[in-house]
Design brief:
alpha/beta; disordered C terminus
């Protein structure tokens, strides 16, 4: 089973309930889980220094370590709120960091997963900021010139400023069209995105598109089994299926 979850926006304070819910969800699915995909914006603001990482989320970290030690593959697609990772997650937890996207084969079908913040039209300012922040020179200067506490405070202030500039009202439609173009132009059967915080599930003749929505805003996630793809919502002790379709997607099918 593959589990895809995105947009948790965990902080050092105020995210304990959502963190515990995600840990419970992961542990409930651990027995059948083979691949966990973190779809970006796991943290609300994240800057990793050479010998320091932001505090908080120790229960999630412990759960990820347990899953990795149990042989479960974990991939982490970096979002616009957590793009300044270095090597801690890879070296300590064995997690694959994916700066842009992840494409993989799953039980006879091709899956393409991306956060969605880099899609043209969603937010010009955020796309520009992402290009600057991901460049190695600004990152190195930031870590060298600004101490850890100051660096985290500044990142949080910048994050609040960017959040105050609302996302394009067309973001949901832009991501949907982007997914459909990917399905039409390449050997892809399923596109998984986040970023919009709006869960979606669509079937087209070319394939399927599922937006995982946001864990923070509704505890939504996606599950791929050997035979089904499902948009889910965690309800405290178990997941509820919101939408479901066969996997791999049928060659023809109406929108769902």
């Amino acid at each position: 089973m593959v589990l895809f979850v995105s947009d948790m926006h965990f902080q050092a304070e105020g995210s304990r309930a959502a963190e515990m819910a995600l840990v419970a969800c992961l542990r409930a699915n651990q027995a059948s889980l083979s691949h966990l995909i973190l779809g970006g914006d796991v943290f609300d603001a994240y800057i990793e220094y050479r010998s320091l990482i932001p505090k908080g989320c120790v229960r999630l970290m412990g759960c990820l370590a347990e899953l990795a030690d149990a042989g479960i593959q974990i991939s982490y697609i970096l979002g616009n709120h957590d793009c300044w990772h270095k090597d801690y997650f890879a070296a300590e937890l064995g997690i694959l960091l994916c700066p842009d996207a992840l494409q993989m084969d799953w039980n006879g079908g091709q899956v393409y997963a991306e956060h969605g913040d880099a899609v043209r039209g969603t937010s010009t300012l955020r796309r520009f900021a992402k290009a600057v922040l991901r460049h190695p020179v600004p990152g190195a200067l930031y870590r060298t010139l600004i101490p850890g506490d100051w660096g985290m405070r500044l990142a949080q202030q910048v994050k609040r400023g960017l959040d105050a500039r609302s996302e394009s009202p067309q973001t949901t439609a832009i991501l949907r069209n982007y997914a459909r173009n990917l399905l039409e132009s390449g050997p892809v059967d399923l596109v998984l995105l986040g970023h919009s915080h709006k869960p979606e599930f669509h079937l087209w003749p070319q394939g399927a598109y599922i937006n995982a929505g946001s864990w923070r805003d509704g505890c939504h996630y996606v599950v791929l089994t050997d035979k089904r793809m499902q948009l889910m919502q965690w309800e405290g002790t178990q997941g509820q299926v919101l939408k479901s379709a066969p996997w791999p997607p049928p060659e023809q099918g109406p929108s769902v």
